[in-house]
Fold each of these.
Amino acid sequence: MIDVPTLVEQARQGRPRAVARLISLVENASPHLREVMAALAPYTGRAYTVGLTGSPGVGKSTSTSALVTAYRKRGKRVGVLAVDPSSPFSGGALLGDRVRMQDHATDPEVYIRSMATRGHLGGLSWAAPQALRVLDAAGCEVILVETVGVGQSEVEIAAQADTTVVLLAPGMGDGIQAAKAGILEIGDVFVVNKADRDGADATVRELGHMLALGESRKPGDWRPPIVKTVAARSEGVDETVEALEKHRAWMEERGELAARRRRRAGDEVEAIAVAALRSRMGDLHGDRRLESLAERVAAGTLDPYAAADELVDGVTQA
Ligand SMILES: Nc1nc2c(ncn2[C@@H]2O[C@H](COP(=O)(O)OP(=O)(O)O)[C@@H](O)[C@H]2O)c(=O)[nH]1
Ligand SMILES: [Mg+2]
């Protein structure tokens, strides 16, 4: 049995096991989530979320770990959510990340969780926001969301944050890759990591050109800065935090932070509604209603749109 009110109370007090339990419920798309989210709702909306995305090996986990240290120095309680949308199991690809996060394993003010979301019905749009809500209610002031790769799903998750960081590294052919995956559009802050390697300045220049090409900014618009880092030695990390804080301040000034959060909430509600409809539709499959509609469409006595209308009406009135 799951005692949701007790779990939520413990999570609010910052008890790591309760936080982990609640995130597992999200990961498993538990039927208890409805109750969990209702209980959490009043305690959310405080955390500032930062998404990190970029090709595997670019240094996301190393940067995340260095950012955790930087925010801890500033006295912030920090959450880290590593999301793997390509896997139905947490672990695996994230195992190495856990090793890199070891520095923070004994810090009670740092919460680190990985989560897999493959196979969720519309899970991408709601799983990460719900896990963030758990960390938010647990008092995390900053939450870093790291995705494992740079596919479309990863980009979507990273873009769900308040501020999105896109990482590149020299010599990875990243510029072209980034443009293809459409990640230049979602970057609020760009980090060229591995600046200790040859070609970092060339990567910064190339990126600068690409950003300028895609630019159609009005005065006062946000111009994404490019920060050079050596995450492995924590170099440039304070500059990254500074860029993040600037972006946050700019968003707050413009009302953009609230607007982004409203858009995100809208996407989440839509995803839940669509998932609910889909599962009811699923129940109808093999149902006499669909069968008889299909017969009439196949026989040409009913058009497919009218048949779909009938089906949708049946589902929404069920
Ligand atoms: N030379 C160099 N190596 C780095 C730097 N940052 C990370 N790495 C190394 O790059 C590899 C991949 O880093 P990781 O953080 O796991 O990348 P992720 O896959 O994007 O999370 C690891 O071996 C890191 O030690 C850096 O600034 N310079
Ligand atoms: Mg990683």
Amino acid sequence: MSRRCSVTHEMVQAMTWKQARTEATTLMTGLPPLPRPWRIEDLCAALAERRGRPLLLHELDLAALPFGLWYFDGERDHVISRAGTTGYHRDHIVLHEICHMLAGHNTGPATADGDDMAARVIAAAVASPHTNAQEELAEAFATMVLKQARKRPPGGEFEQRASAVFGAA
Ligand SMILES: [Zn+2]
């Protein structure tokens, strides 16, 4: 048996998370100073100004999609979160999508006929599926930004999953 076989799945995953955190730290340097008091809308406004590109937040009932989505329509960035999510959970979703935006995980504008946002959103999701590494980076980014903003998960199911992954590190 070679040495490599003794590397467990958990160890590989831990290394991946470490790399995700390192990349997320680099991406966080592209953010404006975090607003105090914390408001995700204020961060988005400052980020849009810094990038010189409008950034619009939307809520949409996304039965077909997991939590959120980012797309660029050629002029403006759109971040969509699932309608009904609030507080830490919504902030986490928005930051996750902002990470995809800053990292350029989607290329090219979403194309769909007409101005129907739901159609554009679905077209964008289908056109640019993310890799596991990209998802891990986005999760790390969102968790780290909220930690820096001193926002704590309220202890719901989603937040417990995130904190279980990142532990106290
Ligand atoms: Zn994602």
